[in-house]
Design a protein that fits this description.
The complex is a heterodimer of chains A (about 550) and B (about 475). Helix content of chain A is about 50%, strand content about 10%. By secondary structure, chain A is of the alpha/beta class. Chain A has a five-stranded parallel β-sheet with strand order 11-10-9-12-13. A four-stranded parallel β-sheet of chain A has the order 2-1-3-4, sandwiched between helices. In chain A, strands 6-5-7-8 form a four-stranded parallel β-sheet, sandwiched between helices. In chain A, strand 10, helix 18 and strand 11 form a beta-alpha-beta unit. In chain A, helix 4 crosses helix 10. The longest helix of chain A has 21 residues. The two termini of chain A are about 50 Å apart. With about 475 residues, chain B is α/β, with parallel strands linked by helices. Chain B starts with a strand and ends with a helix. The longest helix of chain B is centred in the last third of the chain and has 23 residues. Chain B is globular and about 80 Å long. In chain B, about 45% of the residues lie in helices and about 15% in strands. The chains are: A alpha/beta (about 550), B alpha/beta (about 475). Strand 2 of chain A pairs antiparallel with strand 2 of chain B, so a sheet runs across the interface.
């Protein structure tokens, strides 16, 4: 059993991660958690990540060892759905008090485990370590081991106290706990050549069930889904699967890769968001299964299902195309979803004005470029203020994002749709994408927007909450313009390349130190793309005041 | 006499309680231009933030010092310093309110000393008030964090009036407990103003979390009481504290400025509002406006109409002490029995609760008690939804958090009007439940169905309550 720091180091050194593979050794040693900045951080902690990853196991009791904050402030807030047991929604915590912190919480933890087994008789108990007991040195591994032996129920320590890192790290530490204590400890009741694992699928709003009927039709069995609607016995015997799909998330890549190493289960990374991706995923599953010995006719049957479902989905989306013509979408989401949803939206005829690439890898970015061309406005990081302004100035008709930026859009009285984990609609597979299009249509064409944007009759045209912000925000660029004519200088921090966030200073320095004369040379020496920013770089090279600031990008700045 | 029990369980199941630091942060959200800051790992902030956002459906400012394992070992000075500087530079707040968490309290970080050092080192922060409250997660509960924080605000922000200052008798300080919603505060404001009084609410959530559309985008709170207004509270004629949790803050105000206070432990129900309105009439020297005479009549009528539904109900209620006392007393006064009462933390009001026993416990305790005592009305926050489904009894959501229904911020329970509407809402729940689940059948009164408990209950329901 390795220590927590060793596990963290091991998790960071993930050969399966493309981002990691491109790093130098020194960078790799640093690990991949961004250094958190006090006073401007927003994400969840490692405990949060571990709990998100494992809580969808439905017949397991999830016991949080810590003071009330960790469970009391967060329990029963996940959107996963269970087809059977409801035990996973019960909040269990040792609710440590001052006395426990002075005398140690191990005994309390042991008693809590006993209490749960007596009352609920769960298939297993997952015990989550949190910061305070980690600080005082509670050894949950030892307690879990003793309890497992004493009571004969698997008690699994999940060693992921919040302060070791981010939510993403927590996902991976949860994966390590599964690998170390769960996977391979039981045997499935039977096996078939069509057994697969889904890794990193949480069955949010029941979206797994949008795809499962297709699997059932093809005779493909989900041996274990980690973790959506999952059961302990399934994951414990998941090492007998023939193939695995890592669904839409690199968070649990360590599980997929180590299962490939240990048990020879090949995996691929795929997604069920959008028509094309769903088809690709089904094809890949069929191919892997046939490679591992399933009868060859699976491929033909899969193609038939794909053709039927694609035609059905396209026909359902078709009527929306004329309605969506010219409608602009701002997409703020992470990673794989950014291109997988892009393709889906384009099929419905929507125009994309920007997509965030904050969590995307190089490949993701390439795919986006491929999908929306060189001029794609890839946004590295956008503050709420910038999003607000972009919507306010109507550079986009609707924003799709996660719940955190919801109120930025709504307070600007602009349509918004949740496409992250808290959403209440399921958008997976062929039926899901049709649902997404329906929801976008509902949001865009709600007659309410028009009323909301009308000022109350007693307000003058310039002094209500709807027009004031626009007027105030408009002041800013004008001031900058005035400033520039005065000094003939643009501030060096001014952004030139919006796609890769390169400012004027960086480009000027590169030109000066390397005696650059062409746009191509500048793009070689800086991160600037030279696509939509070409004219501005030409201006800088020619020593002219920068003339061309497209309104959208100005807004984004 | 009520017996207050603390069950001896190692494992809390389905917690009712939320932690103290977010109660403290919640209080800071009622100040204008504020940025609450939790000194601890980022998860503490993230969980709190999600809770507030889901409850109010509003953007909520809340920051973290993002303590990591290493900084926890080394001490959090640098994190506090960086967080304050970062917030000062980026969000330009008028005040930063800092609450500690379990990690930094276990560590023993001396944040007051840190702040002194930070002030010496960074004179640009001279004009920025920094308030620190010690709120360890492993002690007390949400409402304690709120109460301590408001008391601290009074100690730090309120100015001691000069000796010759003349008090303004029309100015009234209002210190509301955390069980009051922005809607409650708006209702109270109207009542005060109808008596010609000028209320200053500390904290004023109605200014920041009432759902208004801000003029422009800010990273801090978008309203609430300004710190300049808080400073002037020492010149008021009276302080009115609502909820026993506010006694500490009201006493702090009196000690510092000499402003006398009156504590109203409840503002839901007929008699508490009679006291309240009479008191306002007395301190304002004005007769009770006709509006309140009419509202009182309407409340009396509502009680007459609804006592058929509420009288005899066996209530199971889980809430923080002040809310528990407020709602259970109102329903008790309408004939309900407080059969099961569970709360989060110790409080002076617990002894006054009209129940045989009050348990400091969790929602599992509440559910078990409700089942064994055959309760037929459940009141608690949204986390009670699973228990309500299993118990199959009418469920009224009250308190924080309320994340699965809209309009949490606008639920009103204070004043004659608020009480009237709340009574109707609960009575309607009971009617709807009877229609859906307790319609009489040919077997309802047959003795063969009697042995089972549920059978007995449904027969009582359908015979005793025929007037809807």
């Amino acid at each position: 059993m390795s220590s927590l720091p060793a596990t963290v180091q091991d998790v960071f050194n993930e050969p399966g991660c493309a981002k990691n593979a491109n790093k130098s050794q020194a960078e790799r040693n640093k690990g991949c958690t961004r250094q958190l900045k006090p006073g401007s951080a927003a994400g969840g902690c490692a405990f949060d990540g571990a709990k998100i990853a494992l809580q969808p196991f439905t017949d397991v009791a999830h016991l949080v060892h810590g003071p009330i904050a960790c469970e009391g402030n967060s329990w029963d807030n996940r959107g996963s759905v269970s087809s059977g047991p409801n035990l996973w929604r019960t909040g269990f915590t040792t609710d440590l008090t001052e006395t426990d912190i002075v005398f140690g919480g191990e005994k309390r933890l042991y008693k809590a485990i006993k209490q749960i087994i007596d009352k609920c008789d769960p298939s297993a108990i997952f015990v989550y370590q949190t910061c305070v007991p980690a600080m005082i040195g509670d050894d949950i591994n030892a307690v879990c081991k003793a309890a497992s032996q004493r009571f004969g129920t698997p008690v699994i320590p999940v060693n992921s106290p919040g302060f070791v890192g981010s939510k993403n790290l927590g996902n991976k530490l949860a994966g390590e706990a599964l690998l170390e204590h769960v996977i391979g400890t039981q045997e499935p009741d039977c096996t078939t050549p069509y057994d697969i694992n889904l890794i990193g699928e949480y069955n949010l709003s029941g979206e797994l069930w949008q795809v499962k009927p297709l699997f059932d039709e093809l005779g493909i069995r989900i041996l274990s889904c980690i973790a959506g609607d999952g059961k302990y016995h399934e994951v414990a015997s998941s090492h007998r699967a023939r193939a695995a799909m890592m669904v839409c998330s690199r968070a649990m890549i360590n599980v997929a890769r180590k299962m490939e190493e240990r048990y020879g289960i090949p995996f691929f990374e795929g997604s069920f968001y959008g028509i094309q991706d769903s088809s690709d995923a089904l094809r890949e599953i069929a191919r892997l299964l046939v490679e591992r010995g399933a009868p060859e006719d699976l491929i033909g049957r899969t193609e038939a299902v794909i053709a039927r479902e694609e035609a059905r989905a396209r026909a359902a989306i078709e009527p929306y195309r004329p309605r969506f013509k010219g409608k602009k979408v701002l997409l703020m989401t992470g990673g794989v979803k950014s291109w997988s949803v892009v393709a889906a939206l384009q099929e419905a005829g929507l125009e994309l004005v920007g997509t965030s690439v904050k969590k995307s890898t190089k490949e993701d970015k390439e795919r986006i470029k491929h999908l929306i061309g060189q001029d794609a406005h890839m946004i590295e990081d956008m503050t709420p203020r910038e999003m607000y302004k972009m919507l306010k100035d109507a550079k986009a008709d609707i924003m799709l994002s996660g719940g955190k930026s919801q109120f930025v859009a709504l307070k600007a009285a602009m349509p918004w749709l949740d496409i992250n984990q808290e959403r209440c609609h399921a958008y997976m597979g062929y039926v899901g994408i049709v649902k997404l299009v329906e929801e976008i249509d509902k949001a865009l064409f709600n007659p309410m927007w028009e009323q909301l944007r009308r000022p109350p009759p007693w307000d003058g045209p310039t002094e209500n909450w709807q027009t004031t912000p626009v007027a105030q925000l408009d002041v800013q660029p004008i001031e900058i313009v005035a400033d520039r004519t005065l000094t003939q200088r643009t501030p060096r921090a001014r952004r030139i390349c919006f796609c890769n966030t390169v400012d004027l200073g960086t480009i000027e320095d590169a030109i000066r130190s390397h005696n650059l004369t062409s746009v191509e040379a500048v793009t070689q020496h800086t991160q600037a793309v030279g696509g939509c920013c070409r004219r501005r770089i030409e201006d800088i090279l020619a020593g002219r005041p920068i003339s061309w600031w497209p309104a959208t990008l100005q807004a984004a700045e | 006499m009520v017996i207050v029990t603390t069950p001896n369980k190692a494992c809390a199941v389905n917690p009712l309680k939320m932690s103290q630091p977010i109660g403290g942060a919640f209080a800071f959200m009622g100040l204008r231009g504020a940025m609450p800051l939790l000194h601890g790992p980022q998860g503490c902030t993230s969980f709190g933030l999600t809770l507030f956002v889901r409850h109010f459906r509003e953007p909520v400012p809340l920051q973290t010092t993002a303590m990591s394992e290493v900084t926890t070992v080394l001490g959090g000075y640098e994190n506090v310093e960086q967080a304050i500087l970062n917030i000062h530079n980026r969000a330009k707040p008028e005040i930063i309110g800092i609450c500690s968490t379990g990690v930094t309290e276990t560590n023993g970080d001396d944040v007051d000393a840190y702040i002194k050092l930070i002030r010496e080192k960074h004179p640009q922060l001279d004009k920025l008030p920094l308030i620190y409250v010690s709120t360890p997660d492993f002690k007390d509960a949400f409402q304690d964090g709120w109460g301590k924080t408001v008391a601290r605000m009074v100690e730090v922000l309120v100015e001691v009036p000069a000796a010759e200052t003349v008090r303004n008798p029309a100015q009234v300080n209002v210190l509301p407990g955390c069980h009051l919603t922005p809607g409650d505060l708006d209702e109270l404001r109207i009542i005060f103003e109808d008596f010609g009084l000028q209320p200053s609410f500390l904290p004023d959530l109605a200014g920041s979390l009432d759902g208004h559309i801000p003029e422009h985008f800010t990273a801090t709170t978008i309203g609430g009481i300004g710190i300049d207004d808080v400073a002037r509270m020492g010149r008021a004629g009276w302080t009115i504290a609502i909820g026993a949790q506010m006694r500490r803050a009201a006493e702090a105000m009196q000690d510092k400025t000499g402003v006398p206070f009156r504590l109203f432990e409840r503002l839901c129900g007929l008699v508490p509002n009679d006291d309240f309105i009479a008191f306002l009439s007395e301190i304002s020297g004005r007769p009770v406006p006709s509006r309140y005479r009419r509202q009182r009549g309407q409340l009396v009528d509502a009680m007459l109409d609804a006592h058929f539904q509420i009288g005899g109900r066996r209530l199971a209620i889980g809430a923080e002490p002040d809310l528990l006392f407020d709602l259970s007393s109102m329903l008790h006064e309408m004939g309900a029995q407080v059969s099961a009462a569970v709360t989060t933390t110790q409080s002076a009001v617990l002894e006054q609760i009209k129940a045989k026993e009050v348990q400091i416990g969790d929602l599992e305790d509440l559910e078990d008690l409700a089942r064994s005592r055959d309760c037929d009305l459940l009141i608690t926050h949204s986390h009670g939804r699973q228990a309500a489904t299993r118990l199959k009894i009418p469920f009224h959501r009250a308190g924080f958090p309320m994340f699965d229904r809209l309009g949490a911020g606008h639920q009103v329970s204070v004043g004659y009007r608020g009480t009237r509407n709340l009574i109707f809402e609960i009575a309607n729940l009971v009617i709807a439940d009877r229609e859906a689940n307790h319609a009489p059948t040919p077997d309802s009164w047959r003795s063969a169905t009697l042995p089972s408990r549920s059978g007995r209950r449904s027969s009582i329901d359908s015979t005793e309550r025929s007037i809807a």
